[in-house]
Structures are given as C-alpha cells and as structure tokens.
Amino acid sequence: MNARSEANLNPEDYQRMAQAIAFLQQHQISQPDLATIAQQVNLSEFYFQRLFTRWAGISPKRFLQNLTIEQAKRKIAQSNLLDLSIDLGLSSPGRLHDLFVNLEAMSPGEFKSGGAGLQIRYGLHDSPFGRSLIATTARGICNLHFLDADRSAETLLRQDWPNAEIHFDPTVTEAIAAQIFQPAGLQPPLTLHVKGTNFQIQVWRALLDVRFGDLTTYQSLAGRLNRPTAARAIGNAVGDNPIAYLIPCHRVIRASGELGGYRWGLDRKRMMLGWEAGRSSGELGRDCSAEPCQQTDSEQLTLEGLTPV
After folding, report:
1. Is domain 119-309 classified as CATH 1.10.3710.10?
2. Which CATH class is domain 11-113?
3. Residue 150 above 80 pLDDT?
4. Under a CB-based contact definition with an 8 Å cutoff, are residues 234 and 221 in contact?
C-alpha cells in the first residue's frame, strides 16, 4: 500500500507536503512554528496540521523535533551542549536535554557516552533457528541476534553500544540461552534491557502481546497504539528490534498476507512461523513447560525501556 492510498491525498496535497518538508529542512535552525509553516503552503494552521499528520504519521512539530535530534546526534561528539543548543536554534541546553529524553529515551550525555561505563557480557549459543548471539547487562538481556557466517558478534554489539565494556563470557549467557530455547518447568521472568526512542519502546511493548503461534500486521499494531496512520513508522521500529525472538517481530506480516521483511532473514522468519504454528495448532490447552513458547509470552518477560547507566 503506497502513501497516496493510505492518506488519500491528491497531487496538489503531495506538492504542498513536499514543499512543507523542504521548508522544514531548510529552516530547521529557526525552529518555525505551525503558523509559519502553514503559511508557506497557503493553508490554515488547522487544516495543515491535519493534512501533514495524516500524510506523515506524525505532527509537523514532531517532524521538526526529529530533524533537530538527528542533527544533534551528528554533532554532539564535537560540541558542548550550550554551543550545540545554539547551533540547533534551541533556547537552552535544557530544551536539548528534554528533546533527547522525549525522543531518544536518554539524556544528551548518555547518548554521547555511547554506553561508556556499561558492562556487557555475551556468548554464542545454538538455537532451533541457528547460531545466536545473546548479550546481557546487569539490567537484563540487551541484544539477541541470529548470526550469519560473515557477521562479527562484537561488531554487532558495538553498533548499539560503541563505548561499553564488552566481554565474551558464555558462562553468563549459557543459562539464559537454555531458558529461552530449552526451558524446563517454570522459570523466573526474563528482563529485557532495551535502548530506543519512546516510540520504538511502545512498539516493542506491543509486540510482547502477540502470543506464541499468533500473527499480527503493521496496521493492527498501529491500531493498538492508537496511531492508525503510522504503519510505516511502526514497520521501521519493528525492524529496529534489537532482541530477536523474545520481542517477536517475526510474528508481524503485511495485511496482504505476505511475510514482509525480517532483520535476520526471511528464511529464518518462515522457519520460526512454521515451527510455532506446528506447536500451537490444536493444542490450546497444552502444557508449555517443555516448549520455548512459555518464555515468549508477555507475562514471562519484563521490558525495561532504559538507557546505559
């Protein structure tokens, strides 16, 4: 489904939205208000707000905030917070701090540190879906990836935690792998320590409610989050999930019934869905104590939307 069919826009609307986005990109530093942006496309503030939100899935204000935060993330390593705030057109470092907390779920200092001071231990373990990388902090599981032959485990972790202390320590993660993929009887809940924007964390929490053997669509997730026009943004958040299988992004398909994409490969997604379907059909009253599905349900997982300490 393309943007036009989703938002039901005519060509003139498209031209106006493209013009508005270009204006925001060119005048980001001046932080234009809604009236100023609407004036550029000859629309009332009320109608422009509705039209932009319907087309982009977010408000003009949030779109401008996203532009600002991306610029801040590119420059933060070379600037102090006061100078950076001025360069971005913000009135004070306090506004920059609030912007980071609201959009990135972390302070500017935490983002700049890249996980400095955080200790991560990881191991490589076999699973029903191939070789897995499991990494954990003192707060919980921070990454679960399925590895292909040409991918380095530590390189993957450095993408998310560039300055953390990363140690290969499979003795720490062995028990976690067993609890995920070979559970025996009741186990204590697993805690997930994720780092992402507030919106991403909302999407990942919603994924935890998709039960073993069930499927959902990007549009259905958008409805659950009361963001009916944000299916595309939700798809991006699903794709950015750092914890495979436990946050079950593999259970999300397109409304057409097509599988859509999968960060760890479509063949693996097909394998997971077939594996789960074979264990869930006709077994509604089953005892899951010997199945990994027991550990994938939301009551068995605690998600902490926190940032590096």
Report:
1. no
2. mainly alpha
3. no
4. yes
